């Protein structure tokens, strides 16, 4: 566990906070002498100097820039409880941050407190069937610790350098599993610090209302601090088949055939411009194994493309689950990630409209809509496997599809014209999808009003509102998405 002294040593010249002046509503550092409310003693650290705050006024979108007044790097769960109580009675808003990889200010707060969960990343235990971890740990940390022990989480996001608490707060949609629901469906137990500062244990059988209010709950009712989740025996290897289509109908026919057969672990689409004004739709079909890879002539039988058309990638399990991390690390190394605007569009589509929605949308997109480092994704998911009330999906179809336009600006830095164009595009596409029964996936960049949120949650809204009143009566948690 990180100690206060350890933090001080690591922080160098960062200013340390001792109190809060309720009149000027400013945090007070060592250097300033005035009567103020003392912050509670902390195991970790609270900082306010501009250099320490600056990274928290940005996220993976580089569009929204809200600067907090202070950042808590907790040294213990108790620190979170103490600071939430402190903030509640002073009406200070609190945003929780995992890795800040949402793209539209979801993890930010203007003038309040950010809790940076990265310091609470202890992995308490791992067995073949469960893991018990602090929520600030990344999936990558968990995978790398668990793999040598022969275990892994079954459902992983494409990029895994994301915090466990962060993806459980948005839902967590795995490209490597079409049939098991979201990452939230693999959670057995949670420890949560509520907006009252209480530490609560919850599960499907105990404090169920809180459990269901924080899974895919965008940090509105509590801070997830510890998670017990399902694990499975880790396979050693993966064989990935890539099949490229220029024709929308042929692509969807083969995608549906593969989903119906259910012989792959995960099947999804990666899309990119074809260089001739159209789009390549690439089936990525993943099969895990322990030394006997699947025969392409069997597993790719009777598709529109022959098995010989497939590119085959044989990888170790770790190579496969870390493949996107390698790409993002490369973009970072060439200066095309940090500070680059990412106005992402992310929407869930009902199965019966997905083929036409994708065809119509692609017909209207240009290569600038993805940019030099962007791409399209389509993740099919079996709808019945999603069981958490706040993970909102279309209510029809055996399969629903998460469709993403992962736009990247051509270079780092602000570009107000590009930003306005992309936000307008996202809103137009969202409204088209919504009118067909679609739902937003709340990781992207979308202007969304309170009324939009009420409509988004539909039948779940009243229970969510009741939970908010009960667990965060001061309405201090999670200002970023603008829900309450
Ligand atoms: C390259 C890339 C690939 C991705 N691939 C996928 C994918 O395959 N599937 C998928 O589903 N998503 C994917 N995502 C999106 C990702 O799941 C979300 O952006 C997720 O929120 C990121 O986790 P984070 O730790 O950065 O969360 P943050 O952005 O820090 O936080 C997200 C939200 O959760 C809240 N929050 C964070 N931690 C906690 C906590 N402990 N308790 C309560 N609330 C909390 C925040 O306040 C915020 O509202 C991808 C993102 C990137 C950048």
Description:
- The chain is of the alpha+beta class and 484 residues long.
- The protein is 27% helix and 25% strand.
- It has 14 helices and 22 strands.
- The protein has helices spanning 4-11, 50-53, 77-88, 139-146, 164-170, 208-214, 248-261, 296-299, 317-321, 323-333, 351-364, 416-435, 450-457, 461-471, and strands spanning 17-21, 26-29, 37-38, 45-47, 70-73, 94-97, 113-116, 123-126, 130-134, 151-152, 187-194, 199-203, 222-230, 232-233, 237-245, 266-273, 279-289, 311-316, 345-350, 375-382, 399-406, 439-440.
- The strands form 5 sheets. The chain has an 8-stranded antiparallel beta sheet. The chain has a 5-stranded antiparallel beta sheet with strand order 8-9-13-11-12.
- A hairpin with a 4-residue loop joins strand 11 and strand 12 (199-203).
- It is globular, with a radius of gyration of 23 Å.
- The chain starts with a helix and ends in a 13-residue tail after the last helix.
- The relative contact order is 0.12.
- The model is unreliable at 1-14 (pLDDT under 50).
- The structure holds flavin-adenine dinucleotide (FAD).
- Flavin-adenine dinucleotide binds next to strand 6, helix 5 and strand 13.
Report strand order across the widest sheet. 18-15-17-16-20-21-19-22
The overall pLDDT, averaged over residues, is: 95
How far the N terminus sits from the C terminus, by CA atoms, comes to 34 Å
In total, the number of strands is 22
In this entry the ligands are: flavin-adenine dinucleotide
Low-pLDDT segments, ≥5 res: 1-14
Shape: globular
| Major sheet summary line | 8 strands, antiparallel
Q: Helicity level, as a percent range?
A: 25-40%
Please tally the helical runs, counting DSSP H or I stretches of 4 or more residues: 14
C-alpha Rg (nearest Å): 23 Å
Strand residue percentage: 15-25%
Helix/strand structural class: alpha+beta
